[in-house]
């Protein structure tokens, strides 16, 4: 499947900013995205095997880096400890990476605890309305809590830990390895992930846009597939853009599902995931309604893409339920109702 053009960034509306304030997603920050653009040089960042990661490590003048490090430690405290700065004297930002690839041109910050050399990451990005809606829908409808903050045009995101999907496929599914792997559980989780993306219309889940979270269990391993890129939340007009199984770099996993799961089992896993999503939608119905009310009034794609997706969803569901939808927010709301049932409809 071809994605020929880069998605434009959509600005935040006053209504969206009010929603973010209402649900504690907005905070004043000591360091903004524009501050990190003042780096003086960079060099390519390579992985342990020497391959280009598409990130580059940037550096600053010594005094500027000292001030940035202090400010970024405070940002980390806002994200992790609700603004308790008593821990920041032990924290430093020892590396800042920048990525030209992708819509948000993110900076990745490595924060190190000097008492034990443990480190963590977070991201500083340009705030894009599509991504914010994607993050909130993930938080409300998936099994994953999303931790992020917004200030002006700056978005701060917590790091999502896991093995990048393309690395997992290359190293654990298609190459000789002695590492234990439960292929049936991987197939099951990919079916569920595909279902989550389609129900809430999250697009472009190519293998490098999700990670595999591996958890050791008492007898085996458990897996969860987690999206890490939310820029393509309900933007494209093609239905298959919202179903990861149609992307070529997911073909190995799709073949695994076809080989190990029969149609009845696939339907079971799809139903399980939709049931869980419906329960989450009911539990968060007031917040979900507030989000979708804002989203429905926000232009998040050209009118032609809205009409294209509207027609595609009507054909797929053998329905005319989407005919009156005038925006991508309308389509997301209607699709949640159609796929999850009336019990999950935002009131």
Concise account of the structure shown:
With 347 residues, the chain is of the alpha+beta class. It has helices at 14-22, 33-36, 62-81, 129-141, 165-173, 183-200, 251-260, 263-283, 285-296, 303-317, 328-340; strands spanning 41-46, 52-59, 91-99, 107-113, 119-126, 148-151, 154-158, 163-164, 210-216, 221-227. It has a 7-stranded antiparallel β-sheet with strand order 1-2-3-4-5-7-6.
Give a description of the structure.
The strands form 2 sheets. The chain has a 7-stranded antiparallel sheet with strand order 1-2-3-4-5-7-6. The chain is globular, with a radius of gyration of 21 Å. The chain contains 11 helices and 10 strands. The longest helix has 21 residues, at 263-283. It has 2 domains: 14-158, no CATH class; 163-340. Helix content is 41%, strand content 18%.
Brief descriptors of the model:
347 residues, alpha+beta
How much helical structure, as a percent, in the residues? 40-55%
Strand content: 15-25%
Shape: globular
Order of helix and strand elements from N to C terminus: HHEEHEEEHEEEHHEEHHHHH
Structural class computed from helices and strand pairing = alpha+beta
Characterize the biggest β-sheet: 7 strands, antiparallel
* Count of beta strands: 10
Give me the number of helical elements. 11
Cα end-to-end separation: 36 Å
What is the strand and helix layout of this fold?
Layout (H helix, E strand, L loop, with lengths): L13 H9 L10 H4 L4 E6 L5 E8 L2 H20 L9 E9 L7 E7 L5 E8 L2 H13 L6 E4 L2 E5 L4 E2 H9 L9 H18 L9 E7 L4 E7 L23 H10 L2 H21 L1 H12 L6 H15 L10 H13 L7
Antiparallel strand pairs: 1-2, 2-3, 3-4, 4-5, 5-7, 6-7, 8-9, 9-10
Helix pairs in contact: 4-9, 6-7, 6-8, 9-11, 10-11
């Amino acid at each position: 499947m071809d994605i020929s053009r880069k998605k434009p960034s959509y600005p935040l509306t006053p209504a969206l900013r009010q929603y973010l304030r209402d649900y504690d997603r907005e905070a004043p920050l000591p360091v903004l995205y524009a501050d990190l653009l003042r780096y003086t040089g960079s060099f390519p960042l390579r992985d342990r095997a020497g391959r280009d990661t598409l990130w580059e490590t940037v550096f600053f003048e010594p005094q500027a880096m000292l001030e940035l490090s202090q400010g970024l430690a405070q940002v980390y405290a806002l994200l992790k400890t609700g603004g308790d700065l008593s821990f920041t004297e032990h924290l430093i930002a020892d590396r800042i990476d920048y990525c030209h690839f992708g819509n948000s041109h993110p900076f990745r910050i490595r924060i190190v605890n000097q008492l034990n050399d443990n480190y963590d990451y977070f991201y500083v990005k340009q705030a894009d309305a599509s991504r914010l809606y994607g993050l909130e829908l993930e938080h409300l409808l998936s099994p994953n809590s999303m931790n992020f903050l917004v200030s002006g045009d700056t978005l701060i995101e917590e790091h999502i830990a896991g093995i990048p999907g393309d690395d997992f496929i290359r190293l654990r599914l298609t190459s000789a390895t002695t590492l234990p792997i439960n292929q049936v559980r991987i197939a099951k989780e990919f079916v569920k992930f595909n279902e989550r993306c389609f129900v809430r219309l999250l697009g472009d889940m190519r293998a490098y846009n999700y990670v595999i979270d591996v958890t050791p269990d008492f007898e085996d391993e458990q897996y969860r597939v987690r999206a890490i890129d939310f820029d393509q939340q309900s933007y494209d007009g093609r239905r298959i853009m919202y179903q990861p199984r149609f992307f070529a770099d997911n073909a190995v996993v799709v073949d695994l599902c076809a080989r190990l799961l029969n149609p009845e089992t696939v339907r079971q896993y799809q139903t399980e995931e939709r049931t869980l999503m419906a329960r989450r939608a009911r539990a968060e119905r007031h917040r979900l309604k507030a989000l979708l009310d804002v989203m429905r009034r926000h232009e998040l794609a050209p009118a032609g893409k809205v009409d294209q997706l509207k027609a595609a969803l009507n054909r797929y569901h053998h329905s005319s339920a989407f005919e009156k939808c005038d925006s991508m927010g309308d389509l997301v709301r209607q699709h949640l109702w159609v796929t999850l049932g009336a019990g999950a409809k935002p009131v």
